[in-house]
Amino acid sequence: MKAGPFSLYDKDVSGPVGPATQRTALRLPAGFMKNWTLDDIAWDAFDRSKVDPELLKLVKAAALVEHNGYEYATYLKNVFGEDAEFTTAIDGWAREEVQHGEALGRWAMMADPTFNFDTAFKKFTDGYKLPLDVTTSVRGTRAGELMARCIVETGTSSYYSALRDAAGEPVLKQICAYIAADELRHYKLFYTHMRRWLEREHLGKWGRLRIGLARIQESEDDELAYAYFAANAPAGAVYERSVYAGAYARRAYAVYRPGHVQRGVAMVLKAAGLDATGRLNDWLTRLAVGFMRWRSQRLARAGA
Ligand SMILES: [Fe+2]
Ligand SMILES: [Fe+2]
User: Fold this and answer.
1) Which of 100, 201, 234, 244 has the fewest CB atoms found within 10 Å of its own CB?
2) How far is it, in rounded angstroms, from Cα 130 to Cα 223?
3) How close is the Cα of 301 to the center of ligand 2, in Å?
4) Domain membership of residue 146 as a residue range
């Protein structure tokens, strides 16, 4: 098969950055399995000696955000009310996101028997609220909303690929491989619906890129920071965004290898309608890899 925009070169993602055009593997991530359930996870293979305590903190936070999928479905149904084709697809999407939370939460409780998922999830949802009383997208247009969703799925697809490759514990590795494959399908789902909405609404390439970059910037807003706080802070600790956003970013940025970033950049560029695998990709990948290393090291020095 020819390398196209969906050739997300999952092969050798941990290697050095090379010209994106030379990467040709066209396949879903290793461990791809559609419609998996918790029973497909080899829980018996759990190896406590291989649990990385820093990855465990990230997994706990991720479990809470994923498990909030039905809330996102409510928001998206409010925004896309009359689009039955989309709102039907959203139910299946939300079920998968919630299952990601269940799998990660179950693993986190195996790795840390003191972790209570239900308590942490309540703390998260009590303190972090989505804007559910809206009928129009916070992005201005429905195409813009779908662009933002493409960015979120790009982020999760790259992140779980990076976690899969960073994990030494075999059960976590399997869970992250399954989730990464789901997130790539989610990206394709939102991308397909965005193309449909772009026929009705005008949103140019640069407008899409602007929304994409804004959504990337929001990754250091409250959602992930609050999830990290709810999952990891000791009882009685007071939430401070900068502290917990820093603690999360320090650990999360550290798991990425250049290949994961390059694949993510390709997905962002494709969603914006720009050349996904050309020189712009190489340039943005180098910029993003440099930023993530700098930020992670700086936060580590500051004791985040
Ligand atoms: Fe997910
Ligand atoms: Fe997803």
Assistant:
1) 234
2) 9
3) 32
4) 49-241
